[in-house]
């Protein structure tokens, strides 16, 4: 095992486990108590074999038997409570890690988010912490338990026979060298396993989303072919990881099995020589069961630490890709957003080229053009979600947007995207509508007679559009209202009503709307026309 892996594991253990204070202290206490309760039984066996059986003292044998029963019951109760405490620790670790990674996800550059599907990021944000929280508690506490059992057991073993104890220590060095031989391979395969798992999850989620079209078009076989390469890669690396770990554990098992056999043979010689009693050997063998069990588990601990270190490295890499919304702080109003010779490339295609324009607060603008002309891409440029491939976006004619704190900039905007993607339930989204009048509109026009826990995905396309618009319109203290195809999927009556809301709630702000055509009265709007660029396939 690499020292760097251990350091990384310990750093995360301190950060995500020790912060729970009293709960972790209780876990350690139960661990210490459970360990202590494992040691008396072998010594009681020694007394029974060496003293009570030869004396044929049945009453004392009964007392010792009851004592063993009490110790075993106490040990099991301790184990039960220890499991409960460990689970609470794990829950705390998982919640803390997910909170952090969810924050990181929302700080990622938008371009990076577009490159991957949501299934990939689900794996990164929710699955990987689940693997780490189990390891940080189970592996760390088990490692401590192994140390305690080995340490205290060793003291008792030295008291019974120092020769047998030295024999055990000599064989133990073989375990260390075995870890040096296999450690790096296990770690490398664990890293690859996590990446292939995330890739497979990304493709699998997309396949599941296509339920309707797959059924209607009867294309299950082609879908399986699409899924097959990623599945084979995932299963192949999983098999390879088990193969390497299995060889490691197998060699480890041979050494572990030889240990008690060697102790028994060596102990028998010591009995013949008169240096050890039969009860002493039985007690030593029983203690060896406790000691060898932790020693057997050392291989698993090392493997788990190396595997966890690989997952931690992926999480660290994930955190490093986040845009921390750095830049100079921005206070005050945005009076103008200027595009200077802006060009945008995406997927090998150029969507926008040489565009210069200025959007001024208090004025109204319509970006018009067919699908594929770059309207949505231009909205993403204006909102700062992506940076132009060429050219500059400036605030108030002087300050480059790329140098401004995105967090401060976003506070001055209110945006509705198309297609609308909001929070999981209708209730969650209604809570985002801060304006009382607009909230009543939402209840009347969208909630209707339904329960507010209805899922956002179950709303009609028109209801989703209305909800997205109402949320954007209700945001206070913003300088620009930016709406991407705000009238999509609305009937004629709704278009007229919601367009009136847009006009009313955009007063005093800069209003920028992207539309496929002049489908509504655009009197008073400055119009920008975008042409569809050849070979582009998306808006």
Q: What's the helix and strand layout?
A:
Layout: H1 3-16, H2 22-36, H3 40-55, H4 58-105, H5 110-115, H6 118-160, H7 162-209, H8 211-217, H9 220-272, H10 278-320, E1 336-346, E2 349-360, E3 364-368, H11 375-382, E4 390-395, E5 399-400, H12 406-411, E6 413-416, H13 426-430, H14 436-447, H15 461-474, E7 480-484, H16 492-505, E8 510-515, E9 525-529
Parallel strand pairs: 3-8, 3-9, 6-7, 7-8
Antiparallel strand pairs: 1-2, 1-4, 4-5
Helix pairs in contact: 1-6, 1-10, 2-4, 2-6, 3-4, 3-10, 4-6, 6-7, 6-10, 7-9, 7-10, 9-10, 14-15, 15-16
What this model shows, in words?
With 539 residues, this protein is α/β, with parallel strands linked by helices. It folds into two domains: 3-320, ABC transporter transmembrane region fold; 336-529, Rossmann fold, CATH 3.40.50.300. The chain has 16 helices and nine strands. The protein has helices spanning 3-16, 22-36, 40-55, 58-105, 110-115, 118-160, 162-209, 211-217, 220-272, 278-320, 375-382, 406-411, 426-430, 436-447, 461-474, 492-505, and strands at residues 336-346, 349-360, 364-368, 390-395, 399-400, 413-416, 480-484, 510-515, 525-529. The strands form two sheets. Strands 6-7-8-3-9 form a five-stranded parallel beta sheet, sandwiched between helices. A four-stranded antiparallel beta sheet has the order 2-1-4-5, covered by helices on one side. Strand 7 (480-484), helix 16 and strand 8 form a beta-alpha-beta unit. Helix 3 (40-55) runs antiparallel to helix 10 (278-320), helix 14 runs antiparallel to helix 15 (461-474) and helix 15 packs parallel to helix 16. It starts with a helix and ends in a 10-residue tail after the last strand. The mean pLDDT is 83. It comes from candidate division WOR-3 bacterium. It holds the Pfam family ABC_membrane.
